[in-house]
Structure formats: C-alpha cells, structure tokens
Design goal:
The complex is a heterodimer of chains A (about 220) and B (about 250). Chain A is mostly helical and about 220 residues long. Chain A contains eight helices and no strands. In chain A, helix 1 (about 5-10) crosses helix 2, helix 4 packs antiparallel against helix 5 and helix 5 packs across helix 7. The radius of gyration of chain A is 20 Å and the shape is globular. With about 250 residues, chain B is an alpha+beta fold. Chain B has two domains: about 5-115, Roll (Ubiquitin-like (UB roll)); about 120-250, Fumarate Reductase Iron-sulfur Protein, Chain B, domain 2 (Orthogonal Bundle). Chain B is about 35% helix and about 15% strand. Chain B is built from nine helices and seven strands. In chain B, a hairpin with a 2-residue loop joins strand 3 (about 75) and strand 4 (about 75-80). The chains are: A mainly alpha (about 220), B alpha+beta (about 250). The interface between A and B is large, with 41 and 49 residues. Bound molecules: iron/sulfur cluster (SF4) and FE2/S2 (inorganic) cluster. Iron/sulfur cluster (SF4) binds near residues 163, 164, 166 and 181 of chain B.
C-alpha cells in the first residue's frame, strides 16, 4: 500500500474524510439557507426566484454542485461504513450501560441521525432538485421554484417531515461541527471555545430558519 | 456496626475465552462502607471458596489506583459511579444498603474475556511495543535536568503520562476506540525533546497497530475522558490527529 491508501484507510484517515466533507457540507448549508431565506422578503417569492435562477445558471455554482455531491456521497458512504465497523467492535453488548453519564446521546447517535437525514434528503431532492434540474417545468417557465415549494408544503405531512428532519440536522450539527475540528486536530486553548460557541449557534439557527420555511408556507404566514 | 449493608450483585461469569457467559446473582451481607469494591469481592470470594464454589476471577494488583489492573464495569460505567477513580479506589460508601450492582468485564473485541471479569489487554502492550518508547538511552536525572523544557510542555507530558493503561476509555466508548490511551502515550513522548525526533514514525506505527488490534474509530463523544480514572484530556486525541496528519502528509 502506498502512503496515501494507508493514511486514508486508517481509522484517523476515515474520520478526516468525515470531517472535511462535513465542513464542506456545513458551508453549503449556509449558502442554501441564505438563498432560501429570500422567501422571507415576503414579495411572493420574486427575490427568491431570481436568486435561485442565478444560482441555477451560474457556472461556478454549477461546478461547486458537483463538488457538493462528491462530498455528500463520500460523507454518506464513509459514515455508514464507520457506523457498521465501529458497531462490530463490541459483539457482546453490556447488560447495563449508562452512556448518559459520560456523553451526550446525540454524539453517540451520529449514524442514526445521519440515516434519518439521508432519508429526508432523498425526499427533498426528489421534490426540488430533480424537478429543477431534470425537468423543464421551472426553466420552461410553466412554474417557479417558489410555487413548487408552496405546492409541496401544502401537505401537512411534508411539513412534519421537514421540521422533524431539521431537529435531526440540529443535533447532527451540534456534535458534528466541533467534532470535525477536533478530528482535524484544530484545537487550541484560545480558539476552541469560539469554535464550540459558533458551532452551537449554527446548529440551532440554521435548522431553525430552514424549519420555518415549510411552516410559514403551510400556514400562509407569508405572501 | 452501623453503616453495614446487604447487597445483591449480578456478576458476569464466564469459564474461559470462548465459553458462553452469563450474569449470576450473589447476595453479600454485612458489608462495611469502608471496604473498597475489591475488598467486597474478596469477602464474596472467601465465601464462595468456603462453599466449594469457584471464586470470581478479576484483575487487580496495586489496589491504590496506580497500576491499571483493576477493570470492572459497574452499573453501566467503567470503574463505577465516581469521577477520576479506579475500581480499587471505589469504596462501598458509594452504594446504599439493598442496592443491586451489575458487574461486567470490559467489553470490546480487542479485549477478549479470559475468565469472568478478567480481560486480555495485551493489545495495549502490542501498541506500546510498536512505537511507545524512545530508541536510545536518554541518560540519568542530571541529563534530563540539563535540557531546557518549557514548563507547559513538561506539565502536559506529565499529565498524559498519568495514563495507567487500564482500558476504561475503550470500555466506555460506543466505538470501542483506544484513541485516548494511544494519544496519551504518543503525547507523553512527543512533547518532550527526548521523544520528539521519533514522533512521525511513532505515531504512524502506533495508530497502525491500534487499527490492527481491532479498536474502533474515534467520534469524539468524550466518554473516554469522562470515565478515565486519571482524567486524561481529550486534547491528546486532537494532538494525535494533528501529528498523524502531519506524519502522513508531510513525513518521509
Ligand atoms: S486513558 Fe485513562 S481510561 Fe484510558 S487507559 Fe489510560 S488511564 Fe485508563
Ligand atoms: S488495582 Fe492497581 S489501579 Fe486498581
């Protein structure tokens, strides 16, 4: 094996893949959330449709979309592999286990939270990404992304799914954000408290803004 | 005598390496609150021997919290309910009359049960053997004293060196990861000038051996540090990640 395969297949290497792809996905969430928050301009989706249209056609963004999907797939596959491998390291379970005494439940449930997010993602991509990229419904002008959102969020169960998934996202980020920095070895007496605080803020704020979108649309709280 | 108690123990009994095991109930009576947890086991074993039963096998040596031999998973936590305490330094005053206490061995593929509560932790020895040393003779006290070492580094190295290799970190971790132990050993040596020159080869070899032994990958839950009797800092893990990354990408 050459040095790179040794590195990337080691337990630390695998976690570094999770950390780097995770951090990229975090920046994506920020962009995605900012774009979508344009619906709160309360102008019937005009600003939002414009911004979405720009992001859909800009070549730089389109290239980044490819990087995004590579990161996403790596994060999912590596995550599932690690979940399975780590789980197999203790074939005989404890009869009595007090995990709450030493760690948070969500730090121990990243695989489960990730799987819930994966299921959400499939529904979410099918509803919006596939429609805007692979059909001409939106590019052809017969509908807008904003109208599509309105339509989807009419269904209360879709709203429930989205809000529930944003809880999963929040807990996933609450651990994942600062954990990624630790895995990279980026800890420091001066900066780690800041990273933790920013991570916690991010983990609450971003999913909250996302969760508000289906809610305001379903209950017609915006135009 | 006041404060004496009667307890129900559920103890893991397993005849040998691959034999099936099970929890067996034992009643212990008139236990003094000043006894250590292991002394309570001594009382129980005396009774078992008198009755002609086989005593419960468990590891212990110093009984003063420094050797790292004792290793009981007590009521769902390695080394029991207290923070920064080994099983041998846990006292019965931490329990109440009438309590039921579940006692299990460390559970991890890499720590196979030899018998009852005794597990084979030689995986740790092999990790140390792969690089947890300095290859040259570093001299005597006066040689160490003649080397200028920043106080912070000396303190950090000393705190990392406090690891007694008990394996509670592995026992506590959802991933059965040995990162806290390995990173403490890597840090202890690599923070000091005598150990620095071999940092790259050491971290590569020790991580490789850790993976070969079948420990899981760290997900930074922090359970290890929380349960470690020596309260070894999670910062060691971040340091080892950093050193491993540097050695892999930048080393020779
Ligand atoms: S790091 Fe702590 S829990 Fe792990 S082996 Fe060392 S002393 Fe025991
Ligand atoms: S018996 Fe030595 S640390 Fe417990």
């Amino acid at each position: 094996m050459n040095w790179f395969t040794t590195f990337i297949t080691s337990s630390i290497g695998k976690k570094i893949v999770m950390a780097l792809t995770g951090l990229f996905l975090i920046t994506f969430l920020l962009v995605h959330c900012s774009v979508n928050a344009c619906i709160f301009f309360n102008d019937g989706g005009e600003t939002f449709n414009e911004v979405a249209e720009f992001f859909g056609s800009n070549p730089v963004i389109r290239t980044m979309e490819i990087v995004l999907f590579i990161c996403l797939i790596l994060h999912i596959i590596q995550g599932l592999v690690l979940w399975g491998q780590n789980g197999s390291k203790r074939p005989v379970k404890y009869t009595s286990k007090n995990g709450a005494a030493n760690s948070t439940w969500y730090s121990r449930s990243m695989g489960l939270l990730g799987t819930l997010l994966l299921m959400f993602l499939i529904v979410h991509l099918k509803d919006f990404w596939v429609v805007s990229r692979f059909t001409d419904e939106i590019t052809g002008g017969s509908t807008t992304l904003y109208a599509k959102m309105n339509e989807a969020f009419d269904n209360i169960w879709v709203v429930v799914l989205y809000v529930f998934s944003m809880f999963s996202l929040s807990y996933h980020l609450l651990h994942g954000f600062q954990s990624a920095f630790r895995t990279m070895g980026w800890t420091h007496r001066k900066y780690t408290p800041l990273i933790k605080a920013v991570g916690a803020g991010f983990a609450v704020l971003i999913p909250f803004i996302f969760a508000m979108m289906p809610i305001v649309m379903h209950f017609n709280l915006i135009d | 005598m006041s404060g004496n108690m009667n307890l129900t123990l559920k103890v893991w009994r397993q005849q040998s390496l691959n034999a099936p095991g099970k929890l067996v109930d034992y009643k212990v009576k008139d236990i003094s609150e000043d006894m250590s947890f292991l002394e309570m086991f001594d009382v129980l074993n005396e009774e078992l021997i008198t009755k002609g039963d086989e005593p419960i096998a468990f590891d212990h040596d110093c009984r003063e919290g420094i050797c790292g031999s004792c290793s009981m998973h007590i009521n769902g936590r390695p080394h029991g309910p207290l923070k920064g305490v080994t099983t041998c330094q846990l006292h019965m005053r931490s329990f109440k009359d009438g309590d039921t206490i579940v006692v299990e061995p460390w559970r991890a593929n890499a720590f196979p049960v030899i018998k009852d509560l005794s597990v084979d932790r030689s995986a740790f020895d092999r990790i140390i053997g792969s690089g947890g040393y300095i290859s040259v003779n570093t001299g005597n006290a006066q040689d160490a004293n003649s080397l200028p070492i920043p106080k912070d580094d000396a303190d950090e190295a000393f705190m990392s060196a406090a690891c007694i290799g008990c394996g509670a970190c592995v026992a506590a971790c959802v991933n059965s990861s040995a990162m806290l132990f390995v990173s403490a050993k890597v840090s202890q040596l690599s923070l000091l000038p005598q150990g620095k020159p071999e940092t790259d080869q050491r971290v590569l070899a020790m991580v490789n051996q850790m993976d070969t032994e079948g420990f899981g990958a760290c997900s930074n839950t922090g359970a290890c540090t929380a349960e470690c009797p020596k309260e070894i800092s999670q910062g060691n893990i971040a340091r080892m990640n950093r050193l491993y990354l540097a050695a892999s990408l930048g080393g020779k």
